[in-house]
Predict the structure.
Amino acid sequence: MPELLVVATSAALDARDLVRALERAVGEGTRVRAAPGLLAEGEPGEGLVVDGARARGATVLVLSPGGPDLANHALLTIAAAREAGLPVPAVVVAGPGGAAQRETLRAHAMTEVVELPDPQSPMGKVADWPLDEWLAAEPAVASAAGVALTPYGGWAPRPTPDPRTAGREAISEALLEIVRAEGPVLAARAYGLLNKAAGGKKLTSIVRAPISASAYRLRQQGAIAIVPAEATPGQDDEVLRMAGSPAVRVRDLGPRTLDEVPLEEVAELMRRLQEAGAGELRRAALDAYGLRRMTARAEELLGLAEELAAEPGEMRMPPAVPDDGGATA
């Protein structure tokens, strides 16, 4: 069961009214708990609060009172949660005070900051919070450029049958694993991982064809979505993701090369870098990925992404292949 863990940064802050309001807002399908700090003693047998939260896969909502210690205490709690791999979609600032501290918090939290003027009457405010989005948040780490990136993770390779001779079910099962672990993912990367796990070396057209056919069968079954190559100028490859999952996830580079990052992902990173005050976006994006050399290919890819990043909001999202589309590639 999903869990929303309200972590107070002060023992003097009573979170019970907020917990009750959150319980009413999220319904019976989500557990809401409160804790007096991530490093406080947890429930019997679980160690610290952070250990139990990590074991349960909790989403952390930081609750901090306004005042002179607001930014310091909230940022320390955010750092502890992220170090433990826990998502922190928002900080709730309770009560008045600490105007300058609020600005510091907003500048450095790399997460949403919301106001709760009266902690004893939270229902009106809670109703306006995007709780579904918060519960779907992923863990994030701070990049060198000061923008929070989700750890990439990646598919754990396992032996797979040769796609040239394997049955469609075996191919589809392995491909679905890869898309679930890595999506949104460029088709060439997903197919290459499957081929490599089967002992193959080069992703030839003969190898690609049955894997691509399986991808379209999975789409027809409603398991995955496919964004066609022509929807993203300059990308020249399809993007695969689980059906109903976010079209873009801003992640660290992980095991990928820059060529293997969907351009829309790079473009969204650039938008966030620009909002954070970055100047030269191509260099800032390269730094965020932990790369140093601005090769000709990197310059080309980042240039394409920068053009996407400059598009108006309604034009940003590439469409997936419609339900009646799809021949194999």
